[in-house]
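WARN retry 2 of 3 for item q-0093 after timeout on previous attempt; input resubmitted unchanged.
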Amino acid sequence: MIHENLTPLYRDLLSNLGEDPEREGLQDTPKRAAKAMQYLTQGYHQSLDELVNGAVFSSDTDELVIVKDIELYSLCEHHLLPFIGKCHIGYLPQGKVLGLSKFARIVDMYSRRLQIQELLTKQIAEAIQEVTGAAGVGVIIEAKHMCMMMRGVEKQNSSMRTSVMLGQLRASQNSRQEFLKLLD
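OK item q-0093 returned
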């Protein structure tokens, strides 16, 4: 198990912070922290093919499909602090649709890696494109970053919004506007 390799590292971290890892409240913390980190980074051990598991279905639908407000939790690769937000996905099917729960699973898989929001947005869009062969894909992520809120400039009300548009959602102003309008 990976967390068994991480446990002594968390024990050393606590010691280097000036804590006593043997005190009552911290005795199991290295193991719990290691298990938590393993869970928060489980996306490294998942693949898109395994995750989708054949849940792509033939369909004659060619109108915009939107799944919005998918919660996401990730860790900033610069500080290992969380960023938390929502992901909105739209796509223009072209003969295939994706099972609804798979959108959330794709968001989770890429979120559960050390990330920057810009790359996360791109990875999700490209994965939806790859799996569905859609005529267009749009992904917007809105998130609050603890590295901006808890340290450094400490701006509590700041948030970041990123978008990636592929195919027709990038090329067609009308398609892009429809996607953005339907998010309201």
